[in-house]
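Blinded run. Sample ID left blank on purpose so nobody reads anything into the name before looking at the predicted structure. Input follows.
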Amino acid sequence: MTSIQIISLTKDIILILAAIITARIATQGLETWSRELRGKADFEVARNLIRSMYKLRDELKYCRSPWVQLAEFPSDYDSKNKTPDSEANAYAYIYKNRWKPVSIHLQEFEAQALEGEALWGSDFKPKTDELRQCARNLQVSFDAMVNNFANSGESFKNDLEFAKSVKSDIWATHDKTNDLTIKINASIKSIESDVRPHFKRS
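Blinded prediction complete.
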C-alpha cells in the first residue's frame, strides 16, 4: 500500500469517526433538549395549576363569608317589608354575584387541571375532582338556602340536619369543625403534595 493510499484511508477513517462522534453529540443534545422541554412543561403547568387553585380557594373563602353587607342586596330590597319571595330573590341575587368570581376561577382551575392530567396521567384527576366537588357542593347549598327562604323556612324545619349542613357550607367558619372548610383545605393540601415536585426543572 502506497503512502498516498494510507493517507487517503486515514482520512476516510477520521471522517467516519468524526461523523460517529457528531451523531452521538447530536443525539445527546436532543435528549438533553427533550428533558429540558419536559421539565419546562412540568414547571409551567405546575405553576399555573397552583396559581389557579389558590385563586379559587380565595374566592371560595370570600363567597362563604358570613358577613353580608348592605351593598350586596338588590337596590329595590326592602328589609322592613320582607316576604318569602323578596327574601329568596334577595339572597339569590347575593349568591349569584358572589358565585361569579368563583365560576371564573373554577373554569380556569379546570382548564389547568386538564393540562396536569394530560402531562402527569389520569391518576392525578381524582385530586382535582375533590376541590371541584367542594365548589359544586357550595353551589347546591346556595340553591337549597334560596329555596328555604322561598318556602318560609319550612324546608329546614322538616330536616334540621340538612339545614345545619347547608348553613355550614354557606357560612364559612374559622374553626376546625366546618366540614366543607376541612374538605377544601384537605384537597388543596393533596394537590400541593402532587404538584410541588414538578417545580423542579429536570
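Unblinding after everyone has recorded impressions. The two ends are 53 Å apart (CA to CA).
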